[in-house]
Each structure stands twice: as C-alpha cells, then as structure tokens.
Amino acid sequence: MFVFNQQSGMPAVKADIISQLQQDILRIQGFRSKLTDTIPDIDLGPVNTAFPNAIFPTGAVHEFLCAFREHAAATTGFVSVLAGNLMQRGGACIWISVARTLFPPSLKTFGIEPDRVIFIDLQRIKDALWALEEALKCPGIAAVIAEIPEISFTQSRRLQLVVEQSKVTGFILRTSARAASTTACVTRWKITSLPSELEDGMPGVGYPRWHVELLKVRNGRPGAWKMEWAEGKCVVIPGNATTAIIQEQQLKVG
Amino acid sequence: MSKRFMSIWFRHLLTDWHVRRQPGLQDMPFVLTTPVHGRMIITSASPAAEAQGIRTSMSLADAKAIVSSLQAFDDEPERGTQLLKALGEWCIRYTPVVGIDLPDGLILDVSGCTHLWGGERPYLKELITKLRAIGYDVRGAMADTIGTAWAVSRYGKITPIINNGEQADAIMRLPPAALRLEEDVLARLQKLGLYQIGSFMNMPGSVLRRRFGQQLLIRLGQALGYETEAIEPLHPIPPYEERLPCLEPIRTATGIEIALKVLLEQLCLRLQKEGKGLRTAILKGYRVDNRMVQTEIGTSRASHQPEHLFRLFELKIPTIEPALGIELFTLEASKVEDVASLQEALWIGNPGLKAPAVSELLDRLAGKIGEDSIRRYLPAEHYWPERSIKQATSLEEKPATVWRTDKPRPVQLLSKPEAIEVTAPIPDYPPMLFRYKGKLHEIRKADGPERIEREWWLDMDGGEHRDYYTVEDTEGQRYWLFRSGHYSGNQSQWFIHGFFA
C-alpha cells in the first residue's frame, strides 16, 4: 500500500525534488533567494531582472573586461558602487592589483570609506592570484577586488570553488582581456563610458554615465543598460541600449 | 607611564624578629652578636639598647660596660636574608614585582598598583600599618626611582611620597649616605665639607668622577633617574619560550611541522592563561652540526591562536635547512602584548577591519609577499593630489580628517602626469582637442579650472602651480588634465593626470 502510494505520487515529488535541487545549485553558486538573506542586497533596479531570482549574486566571482584605461576607469567606478553596497554593514574590502593607478580618495564619491580598503600591490600575477585566493577564503571580508591582466579557466574555477565555501564576493578586472577567454566566473561584464548629460544644456561635465553590458550570466538573461551614478544612487536611464548587446550576441553565434 | 618604586626599611629587622619570638624581650635592651677574631661583635641592637648608646660593630664587652643588664643572643648570618624573603613573599599581595634590598630593606615596583588601594598615600599607609602590626619597625617611601625611594625611606624627614619628577628636590637636603655610597667615598665627602647631596649634585660630572669615582655618578644618576636600575624580583617573570628536545634528529618538513605544533600549543596555552598574545615569534632549530637555523614571523595584532600562528610559520618552513638533522627546537615569543578581546558579534555587527579574520589574512599575506605591499590610506590635509593621501601605519589608525568630496577627483591617477599635446583657444579655457598616446580626443564638455598651488615648503625641486580641468570627449570618456603654470600661448605645458569613472 505504502509503496503504491509513493509510486503514484512520484511525478509531483520528482518535480519538487528537481526544483529544490536547482535552487540548491543556484545557492551554492552564489545566487540567492529572497528568504535566505544576511548579506546586504545590491539593488540595481531593472538590472536585477537579469539574475536568477532577481537578486544580484553575492558569494560569487564576477568578471569585468576592461582592455583600455578609460574602460578600466569606468569599470572601477561601477565596481566601487557594487563593493560600496556590500560594505554598508561595516565590512572591509581588499583591493589587489598589479600596477595600481587607483586613487583612493575618489572611492568616497562611490560610497566607500577609502580607509576601510586594504590595498595589496604586487608585481607578479602569480602572487596576485595567490593573494586573491587567500582573500576570497576569508569569510570576514565584504568584497575582494582584483585588477589582473589575465586569468585562465583553471584559475577562475579555483576561485569559484573557494567563494562557494566562504560566500565572499569577488570582482576581477581583466585589464588586458584581448582574447576574452572563457572563465568559470558567474557573470561577465563590460562597462564603458557614455557622454554625461546635464539638464537644460548647462555647461560642464555631468554625473558619470556608463554603458553597462552584462555579457554573460549563468542561468540568467544577459542585457545592456544605461546607468548613471547620481547623488549616491545608481539609476538606470531608460533607452534601448539592450539592442546592441543582442546584436553582439547574435554576431558571436553567427 | 612612569615607574613608581617603594622602598621599605626595616629599622630593627633582626631584633624585631627576636621580640616576636619572645614577647618578653619587648622594651628590653638586648643585642645580637657574632664572633669576629675571637671577640663578640654586636651586629644589631634593640631600640632600647640603641637608646642607651649601644651601636652595631661595638664589642659586646664594651656594650656590657654601658648597660650591665644587656642580654646577648647569637646572630645567624642567613637569618636576615631568610626574613626578607619571607616578608617579600608576603608583599606580593601588594605588587607582583618585589625585590630584596640587603641587608634590611625591600624594594617594590608599585607602578600601576596603588590605585587599587585608593592612591599612593593609602597604599603606603596600609602596607606600613600592616607591617608595624606584625611587629616590625618600618619606614617606607615612594618615588620614581629606586635610589630616591631608598634615600627618603632612610633619611627623609618631610614626606614619604615624592611626586613624579621631584627627585632632585627630595634628595637635595639629605646627607650623602642616602646615595648608598661606600664608606671611603662618604669619608672623603665629609672631609670636603659636602654634608648634603645638594651641595655637589650640580657639579660637573667630570669633576665628581675624578675625585669620588664613577660610583658616585652612577648612584646620583640612579636616584635622579638618568641611570636605569632594575630590581631582581623574587618571582622572576619567565620569558615566553618553549623548548623541545628531540630524541632523533629531525630531518623532514613533516617532523618540523609536528615540533612546531607541539611548541605552539604549549606557548599559546600559557599566553591564553595570561591574556597575552604574541606579535613576533622566533623558531630556532639547533642542528647536529652545531649550527643554528631560525625563522621569524610577525603578526599585525597580538594573537594566541595556534592554528593561525602555525599557518604563518607554515609558509616559512621551506626556508629551514635541517641538513643532518635538528636536535633541539626553541620557540620564543620575542614581543608579547595584551590581547584585545573582541565583543560578541551580536552587538557590533561586522567588525570590519577589526575582525580577527582580516588581521590573520593580512599576516598570512605579509608572511609571503612582504609587509610593504600591503597598504591602507588615510586622508592628509594637502590639496596637491599626490600628497592628499598618506599611508596608515596600523589597522587601528583612524582618519584624522574627513575624506573630501567637494572637488572632483579621478578614480585612476597616473603616478606621474604624462605630457599631452593640446589645442586651447583662449587663456583659462579648457582645451578643444588633445592628443594622448597618438589618439586624438575631441572635447565636448569641460569643467574647471581648479587651481592647485604648489606646496613650495615641501617640494624643493620647484615647479609651477596646476590648473586642472575635468574634460569629457565625444565618446563620453572623462579625463583630468592640467596646465602647468600660467597660460603662455603655444609654450603652455599640458599634462594628463587621471581618468574619471
């Protein structure tokens, strides 16, 4: 009787199990559901719809392509916004780089207390990767940012496995990503500058504006947005920037 | 914090002890004697005997001629030391560092202890009253130096407590004997009419040394605080060191790891009990071939976590060369500090930089890649961009001023401004075009100028003020450019200094 019942109920149970397992996998990979929240949330408005469960994946490694200095500057701004959100509860941030040009006082504009950032400046990429892995292992840290020229798939896989344990958020800025090789990172972004706009044609330079492209996101939908950092908030500017990314994706497929 | 010492003088140490043993001797003239070259010489006399003119180093026969009812007891040479040791042990309830001052005194290091008795005066009173109640006639004094405390306890007449830094005034009126000098020096001083310390205290050192020897200068310095003087505590504070002898010489990394773990556990257990943590530790390996190999670690915050310290040492193990084998390991904590215990996470949320995990991570990084590559910045009050930040010296250091956000600052700042070619239409206007690394940028929007004057009192090499412009090109990329000095047509020098987000 008992066995029979179980068999008859099988399809429904199976679906449950599968969805449960899917949720588990997502959670392990750093994607979270709304209920299990202890880490501060990053609210990027419409951008959040691109992620599974519509929540920015913390406890994962994010990758940013920035081949040019100007892109690197824009990316630094965007990453600072993300890290600033993670640091809101008082955590520390580690900034690892090979040949750093970052100017700490500017972080304040993006909501980070620059004195809560520990910079680790290294010469060799090998050392930087080791430091990055060690930092990501450390659960007391809000965010780890690394500016390194290149990272291989194996190296990124190692990092992803580390953060799945420690739930630390990592951001990798690939500064010479000419051949955008595959990595095990959860997302891949590209941030470029957009001309700022001031109301009523006022003179001067306006708030920083970025073209935020989410090139890849595991289990999510990639997209592109226009964003502006104004008065302590990152807001999405309506406009059809999404088309560009879709075209690019199609080009790659074609 | 300045040190405070207390000196206790037992005026009649041995006779008081006899009175305690035989209360009948109270107020009786009696002496203690010891045979010297066949004569009985008095080594100490009771207060009643002293009152009648009996002094130490008199012969017993002479004394008996003065006081016929004088009783004499045999003196045991070690008795004084034994008594002082026992009294010193008793004094440990007042301070952990007690030293014996032969023949008839104790020295107490009371730094940081007196407030427990409500200040120095109640502390001194309590100690003296207790000792007097036991039956010892004592005098005590407290001062910054052992020398002054000793002098005032023996010869002082005004106050037993010498305030911080007032040693010179305190000993000025005292006789030279208060400086613990030898007999012949005292005799020479007496002969020259120097009856008070004040009359030679300010003489040049070379004069005093020539006439009275180096010892006078040392004693004077010790009393005034120029020379250091240490007391030998009854219970010496053992150094933080652990030893591990090995039956067989150790030759493998695994062996070293095991030895290290054992040593760290022992050391950390002790540190934990005492609420201390180590900042630096040295592991020494004594090899079979009589050489010594050693490796050192440092932590950014005092720690007594064996796992964490082991991880730091683990990075250094490959540098230890066991050669034929290591037969003895010693682990020494060369710098030990109090551990700042953290509050429970419930109240403080995320402790940020104070989290032990963060300092442990930094220790590990510093151990492998060097401390120089780990930096943290604080704001400095300078407008010149290169000087507007300074490196923090420790994790605890807080910014002294706020981070300024009123003026635009780029996220990327070139360590050295790079020269660019520009086309600028009119003075004090931002450029229309600029060429950087071969690429032409057409400027659409601009802000500025923001003039930053040179800090001529800091930079010696000269240079000009800078007029900074924030510019945005057609693609929306934002740059920080400046013109060095005033506008001078085509001669103006332009530089790029940074990139905005």
TrEMBL record, chain A:
It comes from the Bacteria. This is Protein ImuA. The lineage of its organism: Bacteria, Pseudomonadati, Bacteroidota, Chitinophagia, Chitinophagales.
From TrEMBL, chain B:
Keywords: DNA damage. Pfam families: IMS (PF00817). Belongs to the DNA polymerase type-Y family. GO terms for biological process: DNA repair. The keyword Ion transport does not apply. InterPro entries: DNA/RNA_pol_sf, Rev_trsase/Diguanyl_cyclase, SulA_CellDiv_inhibitor, UmuC. CDD domains: PolY_like. The lineage of its organism: Bacteria, Pseudomonadati, Bacteroidota, Chitinophagia, Chitinophagales. This is Protein ImuB. SUPFAM superfamilies: DNA/RNA polymerases. PANTHER family: BLR3025 PROTEIN, BLR3025 PROTEIN-RELATED. Residues 8-153 form the UmuC domain.
